[in-house]
Amino acid sequence: MLTAVKNARFRYQATLNDIICTPERNITKELLASVADCSFIDRGENIIITGATGCGKSYLASAIGYQACTKR
Fold it and tell me: What does the pLDDT look like over 14-60, one tens digit per residue?
């Protein structure tokens, strides 16, 4: 696990627990839970994160990537 995280060289040290879920950001606890199990990887699906500059897309992507590294 640590090797995968180190090799990924994430920009941010983020976890899904750090993500703030608000209606303004259009992120719900249910959405994060569905991503947290990383089943999208097994299904060969992609995740597209969109939003305005500075809204936290890279931070969210880092958190999802870290979760995927710890699940494998």
Answer: 999 999 998 888 899 999 999 999 999 999 999 999 999 999 999 99
Q: Is residue 65 a contact partner of residue 10, using CB atoms and an 8 Å limit?
A: yes
Amino acid at 55: C
Q: Please tell me the pTM assigned to this model.
A: 0.87
Give me the helix-helix angle, 29-36 and 57-71, nearest 10°. 40
As a whole number of angstroms, the distance between CA 4 and CA 22 comes to 30
Number of domains in the chain: 1
> Which are the contacts of 63, defined by CB distance < 8 A and separation ≥ 6?
12, 14, 15, 16, 18, 19
**Residue 25: domain span:** 2-71
Both structure tokens of 32: 């994060």
Greatest pairwise CA separation for the chain in angstroms: 36
